[in-house]
Amino acid sequence: MENQASKPLDPEESRALLLERAREASSSSGVYLMRDDQGAVLYVGKAKNLRNRLQTYFQSGPHKMPRTEMLVLRVHHFDVILTETETEALILECSLIKKHKPKFNVRLKDDKAYPYLKIRREDPFPRLEWTRKVQKDGARYFGPFPSAWAAREVMGLLNEAFRLRDCSENAFHHRSRPCILYQMQKCSGPCVGLIAAEDYRESMDQVIEVLEGKSDRMVRSLRKGMEDAAQREEFEAAAKMRDQLRSLEVVTATQGVDEAGSGRDRDVVGLVRHADHTYKNAEAHAVILQIRGGVMLAVRHYSLQNTDPSLPDSELLFDFLAQFYVMTDQLPGLESEISRPREVLLPVAPDDPDLLERTLGMGIRVAENEVDTRILNVAKTNAQYAFEQATKRLAGHGVQVLEEVQDKLHLQRFPHRIECYDISNTQGEDAVASRVVFVEGAPDKNLYRRYKIRTVEGANDFAMMKEVLSRRFSGSSQETLPDLVVVDGGKGQLAQAVAVLEELGLQGVGVVGLAKARVESDFQAKEVKSSHERVFIPNRKNPVALLPHTDAYKLLTHVRDEAHRFAITYHRLLRKKRSMGEG
After folding, report:
1. What is the DSSP annotation of 40-91?
2. Looking at the structure, do residues 56 and 171 belong to the same domain, yes or no?
3. Other C-beta atoms within 10 Å of 551: how many?
């Protein structure tokens, strides 16, 4: 196995060998695990006939789906596990996906901590509270909201519209005069008795009605205000009201879902995705409205990672339903008491609905009437809104950006895993280093590491870099090797990195140095100019020219800045401990 890894086969030869092995596989139902040259699981799949399914991967390509072709090019070998039935294969597949978290499987990221708004109605002057935990404490909870931003947007809107207090309990009970919010007419001043408890509670009852879905009056007011502001060319104010309106409409639409009298127990699925291969953030988002006895009890949000844009919705829904109902346990708190539904309502029929029904013991349905369509639209609206919010907060970079990096830096391997290293010290004291890891263009903070420099004395960044890289890539490390190593610095740091990799005999790992911008030394110029960050690669005198507006440049500087942030945070912590006599 080691000899094959050190002397990789030609892609066509490897494909032919894998096809030959596939033809020897059992025709029974079961599960197959695709592995890379280091044995890591790349993909887990199930099949009614393993032999037939495996052969489809290794026939002469390329595959129509780019992600499938990318998978096949990385497969070194595969394992199979036989089962007696296809249902057993589906359950085993989901268990193995949960265990191995393969890079090429669609995976669910359960957003369990979506925010809610909370009202303690037993308080004489209750306030709107923002929380991520639903408890049995007698309070009213509204949500979940698609994002923290959306929850705070609605909370601010309602506080201002109904002049609710937003101060803490301590401030409320110890204030002797109204705060500036009262002077700005954004609070009714309950802290100093400027509004009666009955009047304040009436305002809070109106807030509850809005959060329950009875928001027509407020929606009309916001829409008119937005239109008036636009006519006055106050576009910033109009944009703010537009965002408030959207947040309010989304949450009230969800709270308004009610099939009272139907007695129906079902989950309703909403799905949105981005079809563009260049999309850089969340790939798809699914929402499940959990309706029991005709009343909507909860909303579950899931990001679907590793989706191929060319994958049909029917296949994506099959993967989602199988993983959600087979793999996930009930959530703690409010949702722990929600039973499994009798049926699932979907926007389109999934692949092999009969297999799902047999395995899950639930009916699989698509819209049959106007009520079904309306509820599906509510689910889709929530999914779309959450998806849009994800694009604002996620920091991933797309496949095409990684391809651009590979091309510009002349890398042998596609940079699936990028590691960046940075040194931080003050004249040699409290010297530390950091490692950040980007997987498929997005930071994976579970893989971040920080190091104390052990062997280097004084301010010698080159030697420090050598120590850290030697520790990372020593034979004792069991971690996956990166496809690209980025060191923060110029030719000196790059030389140290190259020397370490060569000394350890690591082949195929790309390495570059990313040097910060510097002031150009033209003392007679009227303006002080600085160069762009420079990318140095081995065996090349001059740096690679990457313009600041390019996506490759943005990715590399993002990686470097993240490493610098992580290193300097640790350095400051150690310096603070030393100054306090704790180091």
Report:
1. -EEEEEEESSHHHHHHHHHSSS--SSHHHHHHHHH--EEEEEE-SSHHHHHH
2. no
3. 19
What are the pLDDT digits (tens) for 541-563?
888 878 888 888 989 999 999 99
CA distance 412 to 489: 22
First CA to last CA distance, the chain: 47
Distance CA 180, CA 434 (A): 45
Count CB atoms within 10 A of the CB of residue 501: 19
Per the structure block, which two tokens stand in for 558? 């993002």
- Same domain, yes or no: 346 and 410: no
- Tell me the pLDDT band of 391, cut-offs 50, 70 and 90: low
Judge whether residue 114 has pLDDT over 70.
no
494 & 536 share domain: yes
Residues 6 or more apart whose CB falls under 8 angstroms from that of 389 comprise: 146, 147, 149, 150
Q: How many domains does the chain have?
A: 4
Task: Please tell me the predicted confidence (pLDDT) of residue 70.
Answer: 87
Neighbours of 344 (CB within 10 A): 25
The upper half-sphere exposure of residue 449, i.e. CA atoms within 13 Å in the direction of its Cβ, equals 14
Examine the domain organization and report whether 251 and 273 are in the same domain. Answer: no
Residue 160 CA: distances (Å) to CA of 203, 244, 268: 11, 12, 34
Q: Considering the domain boundaries, does residue 507 fall inside one?
A: yes
- Among residues of the chain, what percentage have pLDDT more than 90? 21
Q: Write the burial class of residue 217 (CB in 10 Å: 0-12 exposed, 13-18 middle, 19+ buried).
A: exposed
**Co-location of 525 and 419 in the same domain:** yes
Domain of residue 175 covers 116-255
Tell me: do 427 and 556 sit in the same domain.
yes
Which among 241, 158, 156 is positioned nearest to 203, based on CA atoms?
Answer: 158
Do 101 and 136 sit in the same domain of this protein? no
Mean predicted confidence (pLDDT) in 36-48: 92
Averaged pLDDT score across all residues of the chain: 80
Q: Quote the pTM value.
A: 0.50
* Non-local CB neighbours of 478 within 8 Å, separated by 6+ positions: none
Spell out the residues 6+ positions from residue 101 whose beta carbon is closer than 8 angstroms to its own.
Answer: 107
- Which one of 144-148, 238-242, 250-254 scores highest in mean pLDDT? 238-242
SS (HEC) of 148-199: HHHHHHHHHHHHHHHCCCCCCHHHHHHCCCCCHHHHCCCCCCHHHCCCCHHH
Q: In the structure, what pLDDT confidence band is assigned to residue 203 with cuts at 50, 70 and 90?
A: confident
**What CATH number does the domain containing 319 carry?**
3.30.420
Helix orientation angle between 313-327 and 353-360, rounded to the nearest 10 degrees = 10
State both tokens at 278.
């260049």
Across residues 122-144, what is the average pLDDT? Answer: 84
Q: 582 or 319, which is more confident?
A: 319
Domain boundary among 233, 255, 277: 255
- List pLDDT tens digits, range 429-480: 778 899 999 987 888 888 999 998 888 888 788 888 889 998 888 765 667 7
The last residue of one of the domains, among 255, 275, 305, is: 255
In this structure, the answer to whether residues 206 and 286 fall within a common structural domain is no
